[in-house]
Structure formats: C-alpha cells, structure tokens
Amino acid sequence: MKINLKKIFSIILIAVLVSLVYNHFNGNGLKLIRNERVLVWESDSLASNNRADDLNIDSVLSKHKNEPASEDSINKTEVIESFNEPKAIELNLAYKLFKDGIQFIDARSPEEFSEGHISGAVNIPFYGSENYLKVINRLDKNKVVVTYCSGADCDISTLSGDELFKMGFKKVYVFVGGYEEWRKNNFPVTKPK
Amino acid sequence: MKNLYSNKYLLLSIRLVIAFIFVYAGVEKISDPESFALSISNYRLIPTITINFLAITLPWIELVSGILLLFGISVKENSTIIFSMLLIFTIGIIISLFRGLSIDCGCFGKGTQIGLFKLGENLLMIIGSFLLIVFGSDFLKIKSN
User: Fold this and answer.
1) Which comes out higher in pLDDT, residue B33 or A57?
2) What is the ipTM of this complex?
C-alpha cells in the first residue's frame, strides 16, 4: 500500500494553480476573499413613522417623509431605482407592512410552513422544487414583498430575497426577526386547527 | 474474500464510476462558482473569508484527480485525495444533519438537499476509494514510462 505523498502534493498544487489562473481569467470568477453578507437596514425613521395608520407603499418607499408632496413622486422613483438588493426590516415596520396588506413570503420548508406561519403569507421554500415558480409568477413584481424564515439565525430569507431580485422583483424586504419574533409578539399567525 | 475485492474488473468499475462522478461534480461547480460558494457558506462550518478560495480550488482538485483516476494515472494517490475529500464532505454533512440544517448539499451544483441518501452515497464512495487505495487498479491504464 505504498502511497507517494510527493505525488499527492504535486497533483493538489497543480490543480490549485490551474484553478487560480482559470478563476482570474473567468468572467464569472470569484474574489479570493469573500465579504460577509451584510444587509442594509431600512432607515429607522421609517420604523418610528408616526403615520402608522395611513402608511402605504409610497410612504414606505419614500424616505423623505417631510418633503413636500409635489416632490414625493420624484423621490419615490429615486428610491425605487436605488433599491437593488433586499433590505432588512425589524418587527415594527414588518407589522406596519402587514397591516397594509403587503405580501409576505415564507422561505421555510413546506413542513414548517404548515405548522404555522404569518397570516396571509405564501410559502416559497428556498430549497423547494421549481413548481414554486408558478407561485412566484402569480405575484406582482412591482409591489413590495417581505420575506422571512424562522428567525435571525437563518439566512434563507435573505437568499430568497436575492433570488426574487434576480427574477425581477423590485422591492424586497427581509423581516430579520422571522416567524419566531412574530409569534412571540402575538401577531396574527395561521396555524392548523 | 481478498480475491473478490482485488478483482481487477471490480476495481476497474469502481475506479471508472468514482472518476466520472468526480469529473462531473468538478465541472458542475467550476461552471457556477458563486452557487458553490453559497453552498459552502450554508454549512456554516468555516470562516467566510476562506469560502471563496475553497470554492475556486476544490472543484479543480476534484476534476484533476477525477481525470487522472479515469486514465489510471497514479491511482492510489488520486484515490487518497478523493478519499480525504469524501471524508471531509461526509463529516460536514453529518454535522449539518445533527444541527438540523436543511441545506443544499452543493455536491453537484444546486439541486440536491443533504440527507441520509446522500450520506449513503458518500459512504459507498468512501469504501470504493478505500479499496482503490489498498489494491490500486492497474487494469486498462495509460502506461507511463
């Protein structure tokens, strides 16, 4: 059972060198050092917005709530254009969006979803089959959607958010607290009877 | 019993099957490095800064050792590389299953979730590559001078 260690190291070394050269010249190549995925938080001013009752999509998208109404539409466009990746939101804002009838997307598995989910949410499991594309296509890609998973420790809500952007959605929020935080605060959930 | 395991046809088929699997796995990952990097990060076992380096190099190690194994070049050495990789992947999968993660395996690009079936597959390949390390497979190989 003679194994030539030198050969092993040479094979690995050659493979590593080839990989680095290939990666350098490959258009889809990766950076050698990966950056942590950091979600941008939606500004806190929105979360503490006093106009909770009449909050609508427009006021969520417009960060400049004190701007005159006439300029609102211009600001809105700017904000929409700058919205090119999912933004993190916390419980208060998530609940405001919920009351506004914004579509929530549950990225967890169908089993977890059926055990209980935020009322009105649709299940689009991140590790699901392609059948869920039908569900995605039924949603309006120009409207705000909120993704969530079980809690702050899971990242499939963010990954789903990324995928939704790739599919053409323009405003995706990630409710970081997820189902756990929602349930603990006794906000509306749907559970099997 | 030893004769059965060291049967040259058996060893050749193990060699070819494992070689094809690794070549395929390598090519799939090389074609979409970002997906593979995401799959590695989903295991949450290694620091983020090392993920891209692994995502770049691992598929090529798989591909190179797979091709060499296919042609019967340095069979024992390449089987050792493949055996070690399989061992590390399998430990990763076992840890993730115990932690209750339902994540993409990352074995052949996106699409297969980790689970007991995957574990079984890996165990079979581990046994196969171990046999190749012990007995080698000189049948139908490219002759080196």
Assistant:
1) B33
2) 0.92
